[in-house]
Write a structure and sequence with these properties.
heterodimer, A: mainly alpha, two-stranded antiparallel sheet, B: alpha+beta, 6-stranded antiparallel β-sheet, 23 helices
Chain lengths: 94, 643
């Protein structure tokens, strides 16, 4: 365990491994959505102009990227909190 | 003149600055130790830290640069909003908790936790300073932009003012005062941006953007010119054609020079009609004479002959043309703009003997074209290089956020790794909301007759001015605080790199806590002075564009080593050191050789040896590759250590 400023909690190796794996999976999910946005803009930009619900794909996809980031972040935090609440996951340190 | 100083604006601004300085002096006594100075003692609540993250991150580039870019080129400016926000996902899912778990004051603590290598410390300290410098340039440029309308001071004075205030903030109380300044700024920025957007929606859109009757919009004229032998007969008798209209350099560039009854020149964009006649549309111009004097539409700046712009030609409401809409909702606002014809402005630079003339001309475009990508970043019918430039920028924005030193140090101001995670989520919520608002503020500025064509960075504050001077003063003061908050964070990051990474660990100078803080404070003064100089010489560039470079350098220098240290067990200290060095030098080198920098050197973009303007697509993979190759070649050092 490395020194932290004012840190008082020690996380178990299992908890750290779980959160790391979860983070990587969610990153890959969001990264794919972002990559899709960049690829459409690069190779078929006209597609971004198609009408959807009075707006267009460019605006909707942009809003979706911003809002989905928050939704995924909240979901990730929820799963982490559940894991952290398990017995032995976190102990009081020095 | 686009704007005039107001005593109310000055009063609100001064009150704000005095309050911010008050916070610094209040916290000065609480930051005597190194932990207190560099990491606020690790005692900041995660929610406060989250908003402070937003205050730190939402820099001049976000508020001034993005709004200005959206107002000038439409959707392409919003791409920055999307990229800046998406980058926080990398910070949350990959970086936040490990950084907190492994570090103490700076991100190099985490990077070096496995190796205890002086080489890593030196490179990480260098990259922190280089990235901070790149990020400081647009902030200081933004400061200069703001004080001109607000206080009536020149650009240079604004840059010096920000530099001086920030040096006081950082040199007095370090990270604690910086945190609370950023918290305050983040909160106010989001509240007042929301108010501004609500006012824009309530006003709706109109083909006569007279700012609710506050200010008449200049009516740009059109003239039909009939070609008769070599003479032009004009439909508006108040103008005459210049003597050499058909042989001049302006005609070759698509403009006709006319003179009015006072003998003042004007340039008209020319379009040939089917009947052979010419359709002339009014432009605006800035002429720099041989002696350096500038004329705005033929007069001094103070004469007010250079008009603010931003208007719509047609508003289509269910196949019916209307003059104005009345209040709109967030969806209908965009929907109405999409079915309108909006006037954007193009720019041509013409050298006429010793004079330089910048002509701004109208470009009417369908709203649906403005609201999809391609007006700034050429992606339609684009060359491979143009497409690479776009992908490179989006890559740098996505991977740059989590590698910015001033963002990473904020993970050490909270107590536990889970607090680092929670504060990142608060940051995503606050920053995400703000970036959605930037679209409305930018589009609002685009169609409300407020844009200053000579400096798009002022679009947001000038949009506020269209609702009254008090809102303008508040928004400008917040924008100024935006610069203060971000610059403070950057300077704190640089102080940590010099005092902790370089002096303490690399040079192994035996220091008391007090000496370490003193070195940090001296660094703040030196970095502040360099930032002032850079802010002056980079005047006039779009601040969001400049920040794109800082992201590219951060993503190239820092992120590959951070990710590989966390996820690849074969990473060696030599691999990390080489990766930071190669990432940093290749990114900076490519920027210095880019077409945009060649314009800064006074040369033509075509003279640049490379065509890429954003280095990320080359320098990020190169940094990863360097780490992998060098680590594989130095596996023996890893084995020796394990033995």
């Amino acid at each position: 365990m490395h020194e932290n400023v004012k840190s008082t909690i020690v996380e178990s190796e299992e908890l750290i491994a779980y959160k790391t794996k979860l983070g990587v999976r969610m990153f890959l999910l969001y990264g794919s959505i972002y990559a899709g946005f960049v690829l459409i803009n690069t190779f078929n930009p006209k597609l971004m102009g198609i009408d959807i619900f009075g707006l267009n794909l460019a605006i909707l996809y942009g809003f979706f990227l911003i809002i989905s980031a928050l939704i995924l972040a909240i979901f990730y935090n929820r799963l982490c909190l559940i894991a952290e609440a398990k017995p032995g996951a976190m102990t009081e340190g020095k | 003149m686009i704007y005039a100083t107001s005593s109310i604006a000055v009063l609100i601004f001064i009150s704000f600055v005095v309050f911010v300085l008050g916070i610094s002096f209040y916290f000065a006594n609480k930051s005597k130790s190194a932990e207190g100075y560099f990491a606020a003692g690790g005692t900041i609540h995660w929610a406060v830290n989250g908003v402070a993250f937003a205050g730190d991150y939402l820099s001049a580039a976000s508020f001034l640069g993005i709004c200005g870019m959206i107002a000038a080129v439409g959707y392409d400016g919003f791409l920055y909003s999307i990229g800046y926000l998406s980058g926080w996902i990398v910070a949350l899912f990959i970086i936040a908790e490990p950084m907190k778990r492994l570090g103490k004051y700076t991100f190099s603590d985490a990077l070096d936790s496995k190796f205890q290598s002086k080489g890593i410390r030196l490179m990480a300290a260098l990259s922190t300073i280089v990235v901070s410098m790149f990020y400081l340039i647009p902030q200081m440029v933004g400061a200069g932009v703001l004080v001109t309308p607000l206080l009536g001071l020149p650009h240079t004075a604004g840059v010096i003012l920000v530099g001086a205030i920030v040096i006081i903030i950082v040199a007095t109380a370090g990270m604690t005062s910086t945190t609370y300044v950023q918290f305050l700024k983040g909160t106010l920025l989001i509240i007042f941006s929301t108010i501004l957007v609500a006012l824009v929606l309530f006003r709706g859109i109109s083909i006569n953007p007279d700012q609710d009757g506050r200010k008449a919009y200049h009516e740009f004229k059109n003239i039909i010119a009939t070609l008769d032998a070599e003479n032009l007969s004009l439909s508006d008798s108040s103008y005459n054609t210049a003597d050499n209209w058909q042989t001049s350099i302006y005609y070759k560039n698509g403009f006709v020079e006319l003179t009015d009854s006072r003998g003042i020149s004007s340039f008209w964009k020319m379009r040939k009609l089917k009947d052979g006649n010419l359709y002339l549309t009014e432009t605006q111009y800035v002429m720099t004479l041989e002696n350096g004097k500038k004329l705005y539409n033929g007069a001094a700046k103070e004469a007010g002959a250079f008009y603010p712009v931003g208007h719509i030609i047609e508003i289509n409401d269910n196949s019916k043309l209307i003059e104005k809409t009345g209040p709109l909702g967030p969806i209908s606002f965009i929907s109405k703009l999409k079915s309108s014809t909006i006037v954007l402005w193009g720019k041509t630079i013409i050298k006429d003997n010793g004079k330089k003339v910048i002509i701004y001309y109208q470009k009417p475009l369908a709203g649906k074209r403005v609201l999809r990508p391609g007006l700034k970043f050429k992606v339609e019918k684009a060359t491979v290089t143009q497409k690479l430039n776009f992908v490179s920028l989006m890559l740098a924005l996505f991977f740059g956020t989590a590698a910015l030193p001033h963002i990473l140090i904020r993970y050490y101001t909270v107590r536990e790794p889970k607090d680092a995670r929670k504060s990142t989520i608060v940051a995503i919520a606050a920053i995400g909301l703000f970036y959605i608002l930037t679209l409305y503020m930018g589009l609002g500025a685009m169609v409300n007759g407020v844009m200053n064509l000579t400096d798009t960075n002022m679009a947001g504050p000038l949009l506020a001015l269209s609702f009254g001077v008090i809102l303008f003063a508040i928004i400008s003061a917040i924008a100024f605080a935006t610069v203060l908050g971000t610059v403070s964070g950057l300077i704190v990051a640089a102080t940590g790199a010099v005092a902790h990474d370089f002096c303490d660990i690399f040079l192994e100078i035996k220091m008391t806590d007090k000496t370490k803080v003193l070195i940090g404070k001296l660094t703040a003064v030196v970095v502040g002075i360099i930032a002032i100089y850079l802010g002056i010489i980079f005047k006039g560039m779009n601040v969001s564009f400049l920040v794109g470079w800082a992201f590219a350098v951060a993503a190239s220098a820092n992120l590959p080593s951070m990710i590989m240290v966390l996820f690849w067990s074969k990473t060696t200290k030599h691999g990390v050191t080489a990766s930071i060095f190669v990432g940093m030098t290749s990114a900076v080198g490519l920027i210095l050789l880019s077409p945009n920098m060649f314009v800064r050197y006074g040369m033509l973009p075509s003279q640049a040896p490379i065509t890429l303007n954003n280095p990320g697509i080359i320098s990020i993979p190169l940094s990863f590759l360097t780490l992998v190759v060098i680590s594989l070649l130095t596996q023996n050092t890893l084995k020796k250590k394990e033995a």
